Amino acid sequence: MTAADVLPPASGPGDANQSPTAAPRSGSFWGDVLRRLRRNPAAWAGAVVVGIFVLVALLAPWLAPYPELSSPGREFLRPTALPGIGELAQFPLGIDRFGGDVVSKLIWGARASLVIGIVSTMFGLLGGMVLGAIAGAFGGWVDTLIMRVVDILLSVPHLLLAVSIAAILGRTPLAVMIAIGVAQIPIFARLLRSSMLQQRESDYVLAARTLGLGTGRITMTHLLPNSVGPVIVQGTLTLATAVIDAAALSFLGLGGGRPETAEWGRMLTYAQTELAIAPHLAFLPGICIMITALGFTLLGESLREAMDPRTRKR
Amino acid sequence: MLRTIGRRLLLLIPTLFGLTVLLFFWVRALPGGPAAALLGERATPEAIERINEAYGFNRPLPEQYVTWLGRLIQGDFGNSIETRRPVLEEFANRFPATVELAVMALIIAVGVGIPLGYWAARNHGRLIDHLSVGGSLVGITIPVFFLAFILKYVFAVQLGWLPTTGRQDRSVDATHATGFYVLDGLLTGELDAALNAVVHLILPALALSTIPLAIIVRITRASVLEVVNADYVRTGRAKGVSQGVIRNRFVLRNAMLPVVTTIGLQAGLLISGAVLTETVFAFPGIGAFLASAIFARDFPVLQGFVLFIAVAYALINLLVDVSYSFIDPRVRVQ
């Protein structure tokens, strides 16, 4: 047991004991979480994968041998075969049906995935936080109304909801991001509300209320900061789902944009027809999607474990 | 028990009612409205005007909603824009295929997942435990349709062991009484037809089962780990209760509650997964039809299918809650 573990308020196995320490953010709770993350090899693996992914996405213009949307290998296209891995020196992983360099497309695809992941998770997170916070803070009929709508949205399987929303918004990349994000709103809203409801009954909120603080003030300074833990975990896990969902929507033909767009899901979709002659065109982007999703999942799971009051004492 | 079921069914009504409102406005929010969606590329202003007049799309929204809801209650979900056939009929024709696929996937997921999770928990901290935890993480993060590609490539294209598409070979002369091909084959005694249908199910069901399988392994492992160190298990051991009884009646039965909940929650995943898996394997179920309806913006089909799926989803979860009381007598008392 380290010194930080015995620091007074962070000790409790129960929510009520553990949470107030999260409020000032200066000390034990987040410090403890970080320490536990550092000791967990799964967290390291996740962090390394996510780190590489983000770096590749950010540095794509310098890393990729060819510009985005370019078809440098057009002259090598033949109707029955596509140059595969190692067949042409200038295209180490071969070219696709548009004559695009597969290495470049995978690198540019990382950037597309990062943008989709972040933008859609932001949509879900913000929407869910606003709804969940309103429901959790006010209670009463506001809570009932919001939660009924959330229940209705949850009665439709998640991917189907995203697909239905994307179908209204039209076939553009932004529509896909909004659709994936909006489909996440009910999950975030419910999560934040339940964690705020737990806080609402706690002693320090009662103390704040006795001191005469208004609902808005208590929500912003007490309830929200103490309820974000599970939301951060869910947010990390949602990044993984978003990357997979974006590929799925692309696969269903909802991606939008030009067909040769460098995006993993899109590459996988077109590779379907060339599965017999060029299976690597499907395997490479598929493996990229998988590894990225795995990285975010490992990170999210480790974070959940590190924040879980039941395992924190060990 | 009956009262609980009745109450749950009643609670379903407002949710479904809310869903119809959302679905109604969802179509009105389509760019150009329902008329443009109906006409597709043939949408000229005059044509839109004509459709609006004919279908009543220019009437006040509340009036339109009430008319539409009235038709829904009578079982009229409109006609598919693509096939021109009633949505209800399209759904009924394809539903058995998807149920067969989902059941097969669930059999794989439960049949492999529970023993594997149990085994991992009993070997906590050993290699097999790490392997199953790692494997289940991969199972959760692998995109369903990517896995479907791999399976199709390896077992159908390369090895040629299993068929790539469809539910049954055309050459098989089978009678279809119920629409469930495997069941049909068994009922009529055409065993070759049943076997042929099963062979067609293997690859899509394997692809569809991965996510539920991975989740079931994790939950089983976690809940067995929680139960296995409980006092009553130790007491049982001390009393000399046999290993088999401890495993089946002490550990597994108590560990099954969270697992059953999880199985219920898989219904949504199975339906979402079916949209993708059925598309890859050209399997004629509701998923593949829905995927093509999405692409063609066949909104009556989308509206109807989303509604049916929500009902099915809710009923499955109700069934799961009811099954609790059979597994756990404590729930029955409350």
Automatic annotation (TrEMBL), chain A:
Transmembrane segments: 42-64, 114-138, 145-168, 174-192, 231-254, 275-299
Subcellular location as annotated: Cell membrane
InterPro entries: BP-dependent_transpt_permease, MetI-like, MetI-like_sf, OppC_N
The ABC transmembrane type-1 domain, residue ranges: 110-300
Major location category of this protein: membrane
Claim: Lyase is one of the keywords in the record: no
Keyword entries, A-Z: Cell membrane, Membrane, Transmembrane, Transmembrane helix, Transport
Region ranges (Disordered): 1-24
Cross-referenced Pfam families: BPD_transp_1 (PF00528), OppC_N (PF12911)
Mode of membrane association: Multi-pass membrane protein
Protein family according to the UniProt entry: Belongs to the binding-protein-dependent transport system permease family.
Protein name per its UniProtKB record: ABC transporter permease
Source species: Agrococcus terreus
From TrEMBL, chain B:
Primary localization: membrane
Subcellular location: Cell membrane
Bilayer topology: Multi-pass membrane protein
Transmembrane segments: 101-121, 133-155, 193-217, 306-327
CDD domains: TM_PBP2
Segments forming domain ABC transmembrane type-1: 95-324
Pfam family, one: BPD_transp_1
Domain of life: Bacteria
Keywords from the named record: Cell membrane, Membrane, Transmembrane, Transmembrane helix, Transport
Entry keyword Iron: no
UniProt family annotation: Belongs to the binding-protein-dependent transport system permease family.
Protein name, entry field: Peptide ABC transporter permease
